[in-house]
Each structure stands twice: as C-alpha cells, then as structure tokens.
C-alpha cells in the first residue's frame, strides 16, 4: 500500500457500503472477541506492578552507584508499560464502567508516571474520531514537526526551522517526549475540558515532587541529573517508537475528506508484524487497525481479530497495510523527509 501523504479517493458509500462495518462487527462479536478478559489484566497489572516495585527497590538499595543508570533505563521501559496500561483503561478494555477506569487511569497516569489522564483522554479521543485528519487530529497538528506538504508550505517558526531536517531529528526529539508529557499535563490544568483539575493537579505534583526529592536525596546531584535525563529519554523514545509506526506515513485527510468509519480507520492506520515479543512491547498497539476499529477490545483479542479484519478488507477491496517494525519506522521517516521538501526548497530559494 502506498504511504503517500495524499488521502485516497473517497467513495460516497451506498446503502451496501454503509453497512460494511456493521457486517464486520457482527463477525467480531460472533467470534467472542469483545468479551472482557479479567484474568489477563489481573496478571498484566500484577507483573507490571511488580516490575515497578523492583525497579524502585533497586534504586533505593543501590544508592550512590553508577549502576543507577541501568536502573534508569529499566524504569523508563516500565513507565512505558504503565502508559500502555493507562491506555487500555482509557478505552475501557479493563473495566466496562467509566468510574473504575478513571480511578485506575488517574493512579497510573498522574501519580504513577506524571502524565495527565484527563489531558491525554481529551487528546486521544479526538485522534480516534478523526485519525490523520490535519484539522481534527491533534496528533498531526504542526506543533514542532510537519506531517504533510500543505503544512510544510504554511510552516513558520519552530516547525519551519526543524522541518527541513525533521526525519533525522525525529528520534533525537523523542528523548524529550517524556518531559513534554509532564509539561503538557501541567499546562492542561488551566483548560476548561479538565473536569477534575484539582485532583489531577494534586496527583501530578505529588508524582513530580516525590520523583525529584527521591532522586536528590538518594543520589549526588550529578548522578541524579544523569538518572533523570536517561530515565525520561528512554521513556520518551519507547513511547514514540510504539506510537509513530501506527499512523505516520499513512494517508492524511484534509477539509471535507471524510470516508466512512471503516475506511477512515483502516486506510490511515498501519499494523506492525511480529510475534509475542512485539505484542508485549507494543501493548497490542501493533494491531493498530483492529484497535481503531474496536477500541474497547481487550488487547490479547486483537491478534485474533486481525485475521477476520484482514480477510474482510480483502473481500470488500479495502487496502490493508502491515509491515515489520523496522520497516514501519523507515516508512515514517521517509514520509517526514518527503513532506519537509517544501521547507528545504524555500530555504534554498531564500539563501
């Protein structure tokens, strides 16, 4: 499937096309793939929780030792796994009801890793509703990077400066993503959509203060700073490496381009092939197409749903794109390089 930035032609669905997703949904339900898996999540929460406890136990036990940098790497990966659990909670894959999902999300997100659950929920809900739509999906807004040639032509300030070489800068910039999540969460406390800003703020600052105090009480200043930088960099790169392959480099939409739900979700998403290791490392988000079609589906069921969705897409002639992890990164970076061309051309003309 092409990875161009232009959206595919949008066919106006007729009565039969309008029921395409309904027929697929019936097949998924008949296969029992929407049923909850409480045993799986008890095990997963237990294992990730134990890893977190062991990580912080090692931190306090080691004290003033350069082995702490290895602990920082490990905790960065564990924080990534916690973020994936918060993601599943947000989509009600764990609990069917909103309240326990929110409580779990606030504990893991705000208190556990310093990421605002309310801010992320607002952002991620808009992304799921309109993936890769330049005006409606906040994940492809030209904040620092540009995601289409149209955005590149209009770029000013920081996006224009970075956009010339954004493919080469992408992974280095991910080292700052952990810090960005903390800052964005604090800034979001002033936004009107935040329903429990005092609670969210209290949990966020409890995490930040507790984290910084622990670092500088246990470690000398230089080692504390090194631990903080490595921990947050690993956390950011890990999350970015999970989320970037999902949509970056896939077709983007603009204006009134609005395919029906099934085509919108499939055409803008990319699956990542792999075995159990990829499933665990990416928290099931390697089945991005299936996740976008059935966001409340427990993550272990996504791999079973894939065969049904892929065969159905072939049956009704919808392109279905999947590739390996490294190739998915290549496609995303190639896309970033291609869409940055207008900025490089403009810079060359002005020099």
Task: Characterise the protein shown here.
The chain is mainly α and about 350 residues long. It has helices at about 15-20, 20-30, 40-60, 70-90, 100-115, 115-130, 150-155, 155-165, 165-175, 175-185, 195-220, 220-245, 260-265, 275-280, 290-295, 300-315, 325-340, 340-350; strands spanning about 270, 320-325. The longest helix is centred in the middle third of the chain and has 27 residues, at about 220-245. It has one domain. The two termini are about 35 Å apart. This is Acyl-CoA desaturase. InterPro entries: FA_desaturase_dom, Fatty_acid_desaturase. One of its GO terms (molecular function) is oxidoreductase activity, acting on paired donors, with oxidation of a pair of donors resulting in the reduction of molecular oxygen to two molecules of water. Keywords: Membrane, Transmembrane, Transmembrane helix.
